[in-house]
Amino acid sequence: MKTLLTFLLLFACSISFGQTADSRYFEMRIYYCYPGRLDALVERFQNHTTRIFEKHGMENIGYWLPITNDKNALYYILAFPNKEAHDKSWKDFINDPEWKDVSAKSEVSGKIIESITSVFMTAADVIPKINAANASGKDRLFELRTYTCLPGRFPNIVSRFQDHTFKLFEQHQMENIAYFKSEEVDSAQPKLVYIVAHQSQQAATKSWAEFRVDPTWIAARDASEKDGKIIEKVESIFLKPLSFSKIK
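The structure assignment produced for this chain is given below.
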């Protein structure tokens, strides 16, 4: 019995030590394409860009298209060891002769990208690391959610997710994929940016409906807001993964 207890303690410790905080620096980029040019962008990423990214130390995390894509958008996330590595990798990538050649050839029929939005992020302390696994092996629907908090309330939303929300999501068949805190201009309060996965749009609707009336959630929400509301605004977009995305 003593030997068994020792083994269990050691095993528990190994799990604990294995769940160190993710220290990487992340960038989410949203590309808005000119009309009719989204397919050319996807092809360029699939055949060239992702590989050239990796050559320059840029880790491909995930690539998605909105299910309602009237803005011809492509979303993707890259990871870097730190901000300095991010800056160097992008500089090296932009100056890479192979990339310049690929870019020029892909735009023979016209420019592809009309505008770019970047969101710089670090890991939020909600789950130990990005969950890229897909145990079912089936296609999933991803939901990207961004929470803008009321002044000074960002720590409260993180605590609520740590203590309650992410566990309740799993109980309602929503898979926790990734949690980030944004890096805002002039050191303004970060936003919580996270991704959950659903089996389908219908499943997402059902999960959210059941979550919102769950008595455990209602009690946790009310307790966390005893000193005032936390969230000012919620933005949500549903995404489908591209075939070359590591998260799909």
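Interim note for the steering committee: Residues 1-18 have pLDDT under 50 and may be disordered. The chain has seven helices and eight strands.
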